[in-house]
Design brief:
Distance between the termini: 23 Å
Number of strands: 0
Mean pLDDT: 76
Radius of gyration: 18 Å
Shape: globular
Low-confidence stretches: 1-5
Length: 244
């Protein structure tokens, strides 16, 4: 019975993440703390899970070399997710603001810590462990649901799609590196665009009227199409290893 239920271990770790996040947010209710709590909680819960279950490091740190073609796929998926993010803006969600000295900590966390730690935890631990007991599709869905829950109900659909994309990249390329690249680009893309081109800031802010609604819908649907077609092409291009 313990062997059959061992796939539940990562999900117990996920509950630990929520408890730690709520506790830390009560202690440090600031913007920087919000970005800091999830990575810290995932690091603690992930480390405890890996140590307790002796989870193979080869799967957690699967940085197999990726080809230039796979690198392009990761970049294209990241761009697609940036476009899909316009759905969030339509429904009143503000994208990441431009970089300045006052939010340097937030910038560094978004750029480096959060995407990497999230990939280690969700695709490195939860997805790989779940994959040993379910089909790849079920494992991707379960992992993506938890990934979306961590990002809140307002961004649930967007985060769920992003989770599917990152899971497909990790599964079909056999490397965490491809998923991390796409995740980094999806997170940091709006921030860099606003920094380099301040006039684009309005693109990532909710409309006060319906000025950009048509453009946003077209951009979001285009991004969705990029992700769907990209996943289909990636499936045909790559052959996952049986032991992943």
């Amino acid at each position: 019975m313990n062997k059959q239920l061992s796939w539940l271990g990562p999900y117990a770790s996920f509950i630990v993440i929520y408890i730690l996040s709520i506790f830390l947010l009560r202690l440090f209710p600031s913007q920087a703390a919000i970005l800091f709590c999830a990575p810290l909680s995932m690091s603690i819960a992930g480390a405890l899970f890996v140590r307790k279950t002796r989870f193979p490091y080869s799967k957690l740190f699967s940085f197999q070399r990726i080809s230039f073609q796979i690198l392009l796929y990761s970049i294209v998926f990241g761009i697609g997710l940036i476009l899909v993010g316009q759905f969030n803006v339509i429904f009143g969600q503000t994208a990441v603001i431009g970089f300045d000295s006052s939010n340097m900590i937030a910038f560094l966390l978004i750029l480096i810590a959060t995407p990497i730690i999230e990939e280690f935890f969700f695709r490195g631990i939860i997805f790989h462990r779940t994959l040993g007991y379910f089909t790849p599709l079920v494992a991707m869905i379960l992992t993506s649901v938890l990934f979306a829950l961590l990002h809140g109900m307002q961004k649930f659909l967007y985060a769920f799609l992003a989770g599917i994309v990152f899971s497909c990249l990790a599964y079909y390329t056999q490397s965490m590196l491809s998923a991390i690249i796409a995740h980094l680009l999806a997170n940091v893309g709006p921030l860099l665009l606003c920094t380099l081109f301040p006039s684009l800031t309005v693109v990532f802010l909710p409309d006060t009227g319906s000025t950009y609604i048509g453009m946003r819908i077209v951009a979001a649907l285009t991004g969705l199409l990029i992700c769907v077609v990209g996943i289909q092409r990636l499936r045909k291009l790559m052959r996952p290893q049986p032991d992943l």
